[in-house]
């Protein structure tokens, strides 16, 4: 049985290869202190100081003893235990069992042992590191120990580099040396090593440039010149000193080095932890299978950071590929050059692998076969960057399971998944946290923290697209004397936002990046892409897209899939598609330039009419007895079929934002009938779902449109329904003003039905203000009008209102009778919302009559029906009434539960006044009764 302790990474312990549970960070800190002092006793006070520093817990000794006890339990299976000795604590453990001690021993052996063994010993020592030493443990004493270990690690890496350079392995050292030199820019020994590796690789100009950069940094930060050794290295490179050339043992030519073709990794890479983990997983899964090649295709739109991800991961995984790395930029979507032919890329790989020119056949297929033969059995990484499509990739795939292939493309490469089992890794925009971190990495945290409002605006306008963020950050970094708000203001205007992201460099200009994807589309998909730039809402469904393009849904589905595969569109939910904000601006520009204003206006009109027709059909399902109003009927044309009320609610839920934006765009175009009609069609939905603010805003627009139309019927209706929205928001004075205007218009037009509806709304408004007598008078007037006209469906509404206010005025018998007649009429006409409302009224009457058990039964029936119908507004009201009856019965827990649900619904619906009223009721439950 063996035990191993890890300090060079997350502090951990393993017994026979199995991890032990060591507890939280403080407890592991105790273990780390004992392991770092394994040869001596540590007093309790020393342990407390090293684990908590200046912030020990109030009962520090008791807490420490608890940690030591739990550590003994965790280590019990290993036979190693914490012992008390000489007034302190000690963990007697063999040095070979602790990775930090093994690391030190191996490094010492490498420095004193035989020369042929030194490189292998250092490799073995450095392989023990699993991350930052003592990771996650952060006290002054442990931080100091971490710094000591880190300095030993760097020294070992420098020793290893000298040995490897002495063996002529400069190509393999270039990438890690570049990364290490960036992390330690003042280390002259490291600078000299990188200069030598660059010189030997034929990159002497870069070696000299690195010397100059190091010299300037030393002067600026330390006020000194480079040391004699680094100056000597500089002179030798200038003179191309023969002493710097790689060794050639036995006078023979040095063997061709393993290919190390990866470009320098992105310096400011940020985030993408999930994608990086998926790339690791793909390699691990392939190695476990031993038969399948690790093949991953990273796809995403232009500027989303596919190449950055690939190169960052590749450089972090160098140790997985000891036989080298091949890289080619296939330029599949390069705006400045044509794509690289696969045959050209294969030939480049053969040259990099050291295949003599005379041995390379002329036929491209034979070259591809030779390439597969040469890499067979090698542990190589092959990065195929910016592939056009699957056909572009296939000739470059090895035949060996030992190789790993990483492809990036703007297309999804589903063909590669189908034929070669590639793992598809779609890359989306950065999260808000990642985008904020990228901006701070570019500009410095002090600068971004100083202007939080400007940073929030930059993040909003760039919408998580790494290229857009980097363009803005580069411009801001170049002008540090400018406030960030200046750059945010440039992006604020959607009409000029793409101009602000123009770099005059086609490889990074956002328009040029988007254009290469757009111009690869076939004409029908390109036209649909342009039209989607005119869509008013945040996304679009397939039927709406078909109406927009005036085409069959089947053909539009194929085009949407093509746009999705090209990452010009995203199917974020089944059958629903959205476009990145910057891509939408680009699509709108192309539509303006290629289709013209009449075509754009016609497409938007088709879409608005589709929404309008379907909204009318959905409204009829939600509120079947709703009256046919003047000017109500939308223009003829296709709509989305809806079988029942549940489907209607689901459609409204999915399209709500689109409908609100469609009304706004219709108002901008002066399409006044459509604006009014959309307000009408959304009314029942807004009421049932409790979207009170949205209902108010749509009828504000509807009233403005009705004024423009000049027709008294729509104008009166707009006043009446805007009044209802005002009342729901507690704006009672405005509601009465609008209702008075509506009643005047309806009386002038001799429209008794509409007068009755207006009296009903007036009854409700006055009731909300506590004037129950005036409310009952209006309800009674509405009831009389409906009876005279024989409108039994709407007579039920008036009966229910009259019953409610009769109950409020103490006439419980009349209230009960009126409510029962309303319930019968609602059920006869199949009006389930009305039925639920009347059950709530009957519960209220029973509650006032002290028949609380009966009241509970009515309320529960009403609540179940409202919930089934998705009527959130009345669900909240009935929950409030239910709580009041539970409180009357002394059932305070049930009352609290009902009221808390009501408060949550009122908050969602922005019904602040109702929410506060119920919160006050909740407070009465928590206030003890005065005896």
UniProtKB/TrEMBL annotation:
All residue ranges annotated as the OmpR/PhoB-type domain in the record = 1-93
Top-level taxonomy: Bacteria, Bacillati, Actinomycetota, Actinomycetes, Micromonosporales
* Protein name per UniProt: OmpR/PhoB-type domain-containing protein
Q: Into which family does the record put it? A: Belongs to the AfsR/DnrI/RedD regulatory family.
- Residue windows of the TPR repeats: 876-909
**Can you name one GO molecular function term for this protein?**
DNA binding
Region: Disordered, residue numbers: 241-263, 621-645
Q: Give the keywords, sorted.
A: DNA-binding, TPR repeat
Please give the biological process terms from Gene Ontology that the record holds. Answer: phosphorelay signal transduction system; regulation of DNA-templated transcription
List the biased-composition ranges (Pro residues). 632-641
> What residue ranges does this record give for the DNA-binding region?
1-93
Key word DNA-binding present in the record? Answer: yes
Species this protein is from: Catellatospora methionotrophica
């Amino acid at each position: 049985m063996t035990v191993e302790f890890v300090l060079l990474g997350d502090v951990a312990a393993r017994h026979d290869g199995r991890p032990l549970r060591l507890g939280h960070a403080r407890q592991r800190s105790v273990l780390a202190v004992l392991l770092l002092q394994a040869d001596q006793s540590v007093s309790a006070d020393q342990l407390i100081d090293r684990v908590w520093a200046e912030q020990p817990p109030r009962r520090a000794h008791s807490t420490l003893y608890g940690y030591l006890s739990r550590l003994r339990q965790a280590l019990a299976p290993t036979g190693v235990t914490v012992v008390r000795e000489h007034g302190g604590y000690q963990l007697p453990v063999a040095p070979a069992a602790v990775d930090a001690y093994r690391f030190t021993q191996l490094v010492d052996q490498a420095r004193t042992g035989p020369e042929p063994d030194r490189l292998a010993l250092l490799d073995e020592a450095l392989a023990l590191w699993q991350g930052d030493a003592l990771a996650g443990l952060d006290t002054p004493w442990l931080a100091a120990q971490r710094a000591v270990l880190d300095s030993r690690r760097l020294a070992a890496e420098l020793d290893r580099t000298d040995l490897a350079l002495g063996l002529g392995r400069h190509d393999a050292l270039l990438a890690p040396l570049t990364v290490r030199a960036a992390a330690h820019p003042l280390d002259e020994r490291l600078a000299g090593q990188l200069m030598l590796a660059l010189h030997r690789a034929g990159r002497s100009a870069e070696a000299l440039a690195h010397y100059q950069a190091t010299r300037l940094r030393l002067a600026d930060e330390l006020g000194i010149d480079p040391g004699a050794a680094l100056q000597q290295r500089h002179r030798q490179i200038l003179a191309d000193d023969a002493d710097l050339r790689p060794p050639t043992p036995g006078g023979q030519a040095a063997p061709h080095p393993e290919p190390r073709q990866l470009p320098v990794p992105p310096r400011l890479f940020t985030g993408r932890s999930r994608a990086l983990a998926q790339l690791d997983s793909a390699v691990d899964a392939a190695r476990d299978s031993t038969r399948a090649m690790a093949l991953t295709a990273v796809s995403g739109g232009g500027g989303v950071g596919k190449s950055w991800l690939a190169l960052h991961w590749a450089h972090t995984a160098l140790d997985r590929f000891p036989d080298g790395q091949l890289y080619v930029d296939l330029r599949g979507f390069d705006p400045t050059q044509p794509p690289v032919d696969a045959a050209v890329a294969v030939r480049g790989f053969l040259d990099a692998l050291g295949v003599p020119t005379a041995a390379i056949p002329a036929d491209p297929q034979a070259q591809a076969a030779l390439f597969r033969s040469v890499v067979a059995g090698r542990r190589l990484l092959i990065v195929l960057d910016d592939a056009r499509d699957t056909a572009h990739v296939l000739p470059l795939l090895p035949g060996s399971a030992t190789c790993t292939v990483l492809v990036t493309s703007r297309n999804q490469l589903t063909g590669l998944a189908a034929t070669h089992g590639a793992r598809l890794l779609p890359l989306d925009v950065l999260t808000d946290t990642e985008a904020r971190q990228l901006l701070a990495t570019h500009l410095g945290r002090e600068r971004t923290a100083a202007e939080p409002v400007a940073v929030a605006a930059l993040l909003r306008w760039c919408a998580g697209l790494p290229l857009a963020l980097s363009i803005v950050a580069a411009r801001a970094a170049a002008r540090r004397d400018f406030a960030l708000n200046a750059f945010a203001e440039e992006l604020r205007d959607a009409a000029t936002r793409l101009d602000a992201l123009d770099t005059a460099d086609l490889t990074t200009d956002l328009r040029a990046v988007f254009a290469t994807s757009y111009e690869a589309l076939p004409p029908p998909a390109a036209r649909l892409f342009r039209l989607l730039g005119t869509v008013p809402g945040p996304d679009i469904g397939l039927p709406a897209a078909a109406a927009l393009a005036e085409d069959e849904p089947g053909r539009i589905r194929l085009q949407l899939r093509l746009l999705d595969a090209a990452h010009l569109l995203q199917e974020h939910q089944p059958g629903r598609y959205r476009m990145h904000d910057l891509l939408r601006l680009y699509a709108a520009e192309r539509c303006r330039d290629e289709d013209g204003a009449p075509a754009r206006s016609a497409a938007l009109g088709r879409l608005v009419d589709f929404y309008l027709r379907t909204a009318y059909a959905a409204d009829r399902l939600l509120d079947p007895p709703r009256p046919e109003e003047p000017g109500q009927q939308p223009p003829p044309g296709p709509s989305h079929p809806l079988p029942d009320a549940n489907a209607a609610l689901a459609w409204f839920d999915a399209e709500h934002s689109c409908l609100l934006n469609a009304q706004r765009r219709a108002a901008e175009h002066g399409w006044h009938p459509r604006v009014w009609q959309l307000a009408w069609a959304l009314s029942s939905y807004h009421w049932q779902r409790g979207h009170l603010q949205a209902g108010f805003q749509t009828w504000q627009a509807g009233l403005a449109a009705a004024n423009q139309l000049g027709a008294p019927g729509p104008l009166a209706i707009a006043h009446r329904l805007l009044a209802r929205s005002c009342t729901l928001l507690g704006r009672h004075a405005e509601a009465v003003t609008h209702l008075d205007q509506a009643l005047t218009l309806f009386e002038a037009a001799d429209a008794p039905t509409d007068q009755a509806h207006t009296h009903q709304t007036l009854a409700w408004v006055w009731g909300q203000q506590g004037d129950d007598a005036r409310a009952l008078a209006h309800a009674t007037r509405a009831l009389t009008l409906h009876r005279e006209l024989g409108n039994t469906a709407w007579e039920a509404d008036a009966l229910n209102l009259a019953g409610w206010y009769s109950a409020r005025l103490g006439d419980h018998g009349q209230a009960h009778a009126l409510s029962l007649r309303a319930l019968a009429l609602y059920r006869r006409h199949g009006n389930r919302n009305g039925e639920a409302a009347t059950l709530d009224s009957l519960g209220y009457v029973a509650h006032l009559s002290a028949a609380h058990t009966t009241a509970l039964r009515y309320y529960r029936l009403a609540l179940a029906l409202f919930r089934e119908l998705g009527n959130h507004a009345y669900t909240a009201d009935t929950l409030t009434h239910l709580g009041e009856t539970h409180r009357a019965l002394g059932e305070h827990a049930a009352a609290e539960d009902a009221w808390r649900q009501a408060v949550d619904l009122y908050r969602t619906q922005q019904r602040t006044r109702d929410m506060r009223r119920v919160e006050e009721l909740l407070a009465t439950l928590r206030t003890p009764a005065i005896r």
